Each structure stands twice: as structure tokens, then as C-alpha cells.
Amino acid sequence: MVTKEYYPKEKVAAGHSNHAICPGPRWPDLGDLRVFLTWGVVIGMVFFAIYPFCNWLTAQRVEPWRLYLDAELSIPLLPQFVWLYMSMYVLFLLPPLFVPIRTAPLLARQLIAGCVVCGLSYLVFPAVLGFDRGLPSEEPYRQIFGAIFDVDAPHNLVPSMHVVFSCLIALACARFARPCVRYLLWAWLPLIVLSTVLVHQHHLLDVASALLLVLALRWRWRLDQGQSAC
């Protein structure tokens, strides 16, 4: 059930309205949506200024680094996990339903800083994917993977920005969610992280370094949980 944010009169009178947060999902008002949309545009601008450029620059290098173990190349490709891999894009729609408006700038700073740190790392550690980028034989996976390969070069690996963005958004939403939704997000997130390896888009070091970066970003910009008024 989706609820509206609610501030009891006694809490407002006492000056505690900033801490009266009803657990999500809840419908945001138009003003809140504009704030989230503005931050989304800013984050998108930062992403598109960094990610394609780093991919292009690494592709020009004669010998990009191979930051993976040979044993990892035996990990099988599981095309079905591409649905979980792409489900990260659903996460982008969730913050307005869960994250309080006063916390939106903190989450945005986490995402922007994560994007910048990833970009710097891609420049310092220009890597190449070790997995063969052959297309699956069956449809619709052949077409889906072909589209992924068309828009994303086999670089920009350490750390995985896919994992960084997924973790920051999912954990932020889970913090302000009702228990049943929180558990669902907690179950969904590891599957997204796992999918980055099982669809052969990332290696283990990419995932591990991304998780460490997430911890650092969440420590630097702590999200205020507040107290529920429901």
C-alpha cells in the first residue's frame, strides 16, 4: 500500500516535523518530484560526461590491463540473469517513493561522487574484460546482449558502476521502506550484483571494489533515517 507522508500536529507543534516520516512506498507531491527530477538530470549529465569518455579513452590504449584471475573465465554465462542485470534501471524510479525529500541531496551526492570516483579509477586502471563477448544463440537473449555490446565497450570495469548505483539506490530506499518492502529490496540487490558477473559484464575485483566504494560513500554521506509517524 502506498501512503502519503504524514506529520502529526503534536509533532509539528513541537518542532519535530523533520523526523516524522511514514515508511514507503508513499506518493510524492509534485514539488518533491521536481526536486528528484532535477537531481536525476544532474546525475545523468555527470554520468554521460564521464562514462562514455572513459570507455572511449581506454579503447585507444594498446595494452589495457587484465584485472582478473584466469579461473574466473570458467564462470558460465547465464543469459537469463540479464533480466536481473537490467532491473537496475527499475531502481532509478524508486527514490521518490521512499527517500524523504530532505535526504534526496545526500543520495544524489553519493551517486555523483560514486560516478566521479569510478571515472577516475577507470583512467588510473584502464582494464579490459576477460570474458568472450559472444552472443547467446537463443532469443531474445541474442538481441538483448547485442544491444548491450553496442552501447557499452568492454572497459570501465574497476569498480563496477552498475553495482555502485544499484547498491546506493536500493539501500537508500530500503532504509525508508516498510519491513516487507525492505526485505524484498535486500533480496533483490544481491541478485543484481551477482548478475553482473553471470552475464559476463564484470569480474570479481570489479564487484569487490564497488562494494568497498559503496561503504565509503554511505559513511561519508549518511542518510538520516528519521522516525516513523505511522
Task: Describe the model.
With about 230 residues, this protein is mainly alpha-helical. It has one domain (about 10-220). The protein is built from ten helices and no strands. It has helices at about 10-15, 30-60, 80-85, 90, 95-100, 105-125, 140-150, 160-175, 180-200, 205-220. The longest helix is centred in the N-terminal third of the chain and has 30 residues, at about 30-60. The protein is globular and about 50 Å long. Mean pLDDT is about 90; it is low at about 1-20 and about 225-230.
Entry summary:
By secondary structure, the chain is mostly helical. It has helices spanning 9-13, 30-59, 82-86, 88-91, 95-98, 104-124, 141-151, 161-175, 179-198, 204-220.
- How many beta-strand segments? 0
Which range best describes the helical content: under 10%, 10-25%, 25-40%, 40-55%, 55-70% or over 70%? 55-70%
The major sheet is characterized as: none
Categorize the overall geometry.
globular
Instruction: Give the overall average pLDDT.
Output: 90
Number of domains: 1
**Relative strand content:** under 5%
Order of helices and strands: HHHHHHHHHH
Number of helices: 10
Low-pLDDT parts are 1-19, 225-230
Radius of gyration (CA) equals 19 Å
| Gap between N and C termini | 13 Å
Q: By helix and strand content, what is the structural category?
A: mainly alpha
